[in-house]
Amino acid sequence: MKNLRINLNKRFQLWGLMLLMFLVPMAYASGGNSKIPEYFLWIAVLLLLAKSSSFIEKIKQPAVLGELIMGVLLGNAVLIGFGWFEPMKHDPIILFLAELGVVILLFQIGLESYIEEMKKVGLQALFVALVGVITPFALGYFAGMWLMPGLEQNAYLFLGATLTATSVGITGRVFKDLNKLQTKEAQIVLGAAVIDDVMGLIILAVVSAIVTTGAVSVGAISIITAKAVVFLVGALVLGSFFAPLVNRMFSMIHSGHGMKFSVAIILCLIFAYLAHLAGLAPIVGAFAAGLMLEPVHFKVFDDPAINKNIQAAIADADENIRNKVNKELDRFNDQHLDRLVAPLGDFLVPLFFIVTGMQVNLATLSDPKIIGIALIITAIAFVGKLVSGLVAGPGVNKWIIGWGMAPRGEVGLIFAMIGKQLGVISDELFSVVIIMVILTTLLTPPILSYLLRKQEAG
Amino acid sequence: MKNLRINLNKRFQLWGLMLLMFLVPMAYASGGNSKIPEYFLWIAVLLLLAKSSSFIEKIKQPAVLGELIMGVLLGNAVLIGFGWFEPMKHDPIILFLAELGVVILLFQIGLESYIEEMKKVGLQALFVALVGVITPFALGYFAGMWLMPGLEQNAYLFLGATLTATSVGITGRVFKDLNKLQTKEAQIVLGAAVIDDVMGLIILAVVSAIVTTGAVSVGAISIITAKAVVFLVGALVLGSFFAPLVNRMFSMIHSGHGMKFSVAIILCLIFAYLAHLAGLAPIVGAFAAGLMLEPVHFKVFDDPAINKNIQAAIADADENIRNKVNKELDRFNDQHLDRLVAPLGDFLVPLFFIVTGMQVNLATLSDPKIIGIALIITAIAFVGKLVSGLVAGPGVNKWIIGWGMAPRGEVGLIFAMIGKQLGVISDELFSVVIIMVILTTLLTPPILSYLLRKQEAG
Q: Would you give the distance in Å from CA A124 to the centre of its chain?
């Protein structure tokens, strides 16, 4: 035993433990007799596999890609005779947790989206976002009609809508990983991605409503657009009106982090429900709640030992140093809400991506025509966003901006998932969209880092 | 508008906002057409009401009591014609979330239970715990047979088992609130409460298994006890064996908090499932996972600005001060796992208590006999624990220890809930148990603080 442990390196031990945790319960999985404990096992296994897939980060790819690919593998394990994951695909509790996960994710994205940032990059970002939404939408709509004739109008609309997405998470991550967040290109791309998010959610609301109500008249679209804009703008106005109140409320709460976190989650869920009442997707409401709460900073650590202890430790230092340390402590204590929401996201968001991946039917790929269409749509997805770089104005590298806008990431997936739930997107079209999302998400980071390094060198 | 705002004080504004958040969606609740967004509303409303009930903390009562009473009110709102909450009582998704909540709660209690603390208070705590388990169990069993003749044997067993519980959370909180955690009495009570938790979970496992399998032979009880002990001891041995590995694993994880949190939750859920496979309640496994992970400390903040920034701020200070500050930073960074798990608990645990409260049928209280029985059982619950103070040994205030053991809190509720799920505990008996839990939890804090202040005075 001891020899064995010495021979195994640490990494192997880690994976061995994970494998053990996974296999032991699997072997006994048939022994259960109540349903709820089985959900505990399901969730544990899904989370474990989602987290195992994060080795993909080692090769500089976003974790979401790993979760998605893992989901595709699990959802198609039945093709090689392993049907253990099959019942999860349509289980109401698993689907509910996944849906709650995407609501929490959009809430987090809302919390991370700063209206102030959009103002700074201003018009350039707005132009990039507009072109980056209109071009892929139009290209996708017409390419869909050309490549897959005979589908209903709504399917083409959804394909176009899905192509408009930009993953602010992935884009931001690449710039951050390469320490380029402060470049003008990064500022424009991030601003444009945020505007893109908002426009994308409006498009999603419009397209969803068209699908649900069947209305395609200009009047109906205007009403839906107005509704979405009123809802988002209303949430922001309400937000800036109530933010000081919420802030004061939060500062009145002395019963630890629990209450602050709960108030945030309650707002997120209520806005998700209100969006649903307004005929929008619940995620639109969650995003609005996040944007609204964004200005609310508060003390995460009200009474931690760190303040008292460090202040005691520097009691004998001179005043200059004491002031500097106190400033840093204040800055640290003034944490952002997203830190509190993160664990809930860590629990639920991977379930959304893995369950989304599970909906991909690889059997549809036996048709080489589907693969061909997916590749053409992917090319269109890149072209549509690269064009947006051209309007970024002078003094910036247009290629970097174009490629920065390219990854569809989680936003594209959310669109596809909603389309599938609404019954607009067939299995084939869903596979096409998922391949497009995977390829744009997978190919962008290496290309972008090549361009950024080239810019630095030259 | 401005005048209005000036006239309203801050507290009123806070409650007004909460009321608004609550009423607006309620008014439109009938407008929805999909099921999932409605769950968002349900959860938001339940969380909001659970958190609103925390005003009870202002009158020095534990929050759990407020959640419970709120649950009782909501669950019986139908008696005054308000049936909006009725479908939640038996909704599979709400019940699943509540069940997940109690699993997370026991995981948290396990994380907070230190084996080292038990060792220090040693034999005294063990005696108190043993007497504090045996006396209420015997008294409850026989009192049940005397007061409610004609029920099945299992009902009396469950009543006795429920009376054995001690809420380590509530007990600890009272001592902490009064700044008495370092007294010998507090150490003994906390140690005994932890041992009580473990014994209580074994009793719960035994009683549950007896109910499920129908076995009441001494041989069967021995097997179940052995199974429970082997499971718990096994988890602890495995835990101390794997803890360094898990610790190393955690320190290898550089991808932020997400991974550490996920590994902890995965272990919690897998142990909950394994306990179920071993014929125990899932919460026993969650508790074991918490105990097992307890020695695993790790850096919560791997790469926060605080380390770098504060170190920069003290760069000019003399070495002595720099060392002291660095020591404090290290101590701060070495956070405990429960801080990461807390938000998930904040989200799910109140759902458990409020849903538990909802199961109380106030209609059963129209029978004065039930109220009489509940009061006698409550008296027995106090006597059973006060007796345990007598064996606490010399040099301590026996009354403080006895009353310290009295609150049943969440542990008693978990017992009652499991008994109800198993069909052993009737509506009447459940009401009796809930009243006992509420009264022991409600009356103890004021009495204990009176005794502690009297001891201090002289």
A: 24
For chain A, say whether B383 makes contact (Cβ under 8 Å).
no
| Interface membership of B57 toward A (CB under 8 Å) | yes
Residue of chain B with shortest Cα separation from A58: B255
Which residues are CB-neighbours of B364 under 8 A, at least 6 positions away?
A: B370, B427, B428, B431
Interface test with B, best of A9, A36, A95 (most B CBs within 10 A): A36
Q: Which of B40, B99, B313 sits opposite A325 (nearest CB)?
A: B313
What gap in Å lies between CA B196 and CA B380, rounded to an integer? 18
CA distance A124 to chain B (A): 31
Dist. CA A287–CA A107, nearest whole Å: 5
Neighbours of A41 (CB within 10 A): 21
**Is A270's Cβ below 8 Å from some Cβ in B?**
yes
B-chain residues within 8 Å CB-CB of A331? 305, 309
Output b/e per residue, B251-283; b: 16+ Cβ within 10 A: eebeeebbbbbbbbbbbbbbbbbbbbbbbbbbb
Closest to A28 in 3D by CA, of B279, B358, B408: B279
- Cβ of A257 and B92 within 8 Å? no
CA distances from A155 to A207, A362, A385, A422, B408 (A): 10, 20, 21, 10, 58
Q: How far is CA A287 from CA A29, A40, A416, B47, B421, in A?
A: 38, 29, 18, 20, 38
Of A262, A272, A342, Cβ closest to residue B258: A342
**Yes or no, beta carbons of A32 and B282 under 8 Å apart:** no
Q: How far apart are CA A283 and CA A106, in angstroms?
A: 6
The pLDDT confidence band at residue A30, using thresholds 50, 70 and 90, is very low
A14 part of contact set with chain B, CB < 8 Å: yes
Q: Of A358, A362, A380, whose CA–CA distance to A371 is shortest? A: A362
Q: Which of A252, A263, A269 sits opposite B43 (nearest CB)?
A: A269
Assess A273–B contact: CB distance below 8 Å, yes or no.
yes
A253 touches chain B (CB under 8 A): no
Helices B168-177 and B427-457 pack at an angle, to 10 degrees, of 30
SS3 B404: helix
**Assembly ipTM:** 0.74
Instruction: Check CB contact of B4 with chain A, cutoff 8 Å.
Output: no
pLDDT tens per residue, chain B (458 residues)?
A: 333 333 333 333 334 344 344 333 333 333 333 688 899 999 999 999 988 877 766 666 667 778 878 888 998 898 888 889 989 988 899 989 998 998 898 888 777 766 665 566 678 888 999 999 999 999 999 999 999 888 888 889 889 989 998 876 667 766 766 777 777 888 788 778 877 877 777 787 777 777 777 655 677 667 767 777 787 777 777 766 776 676 666 656 554 556 778 888 998 999 999 888 876 778 778 878 887 776 655 444 444 555 666 777 777 777 777 777 777 766 665 556 777 788 898 899 889 888 878 877 777 777 888 899 999 999 999 999 999 999 887 888 999 999 999 988 767 877 888 888 888 888 888 889 888 988 887 788 778 878 888 887 87
Q: For chain A, first and last CA: distance in Å?
A: 56
Q: DSSP assignment, residue A298? A: E
Task: Report phi then psi at B75, rounded to 5.
Answer: -65, -20
**Mind telling me how many Å the CA of A396 is from chain B's nearest CA?**
30
Enumerate the residues of chain A whose CB falls inside 8 A of the CB of residue B103. Answer: 40
Q: Say whether residue A99 is in contact with chain B using an 8 A CB cutoff.
A: yes
Estimate the share of chain A in helix, then strand, then coil, as percent rounded to the nearest 5. Answer: 80, 0, 20
Residue closest to A155 by CA, chosen among A145, A165, A147, A146: A145
Q: Which of B41, B44, B328 sits opposite A313 (nearest CB)?
A: B328
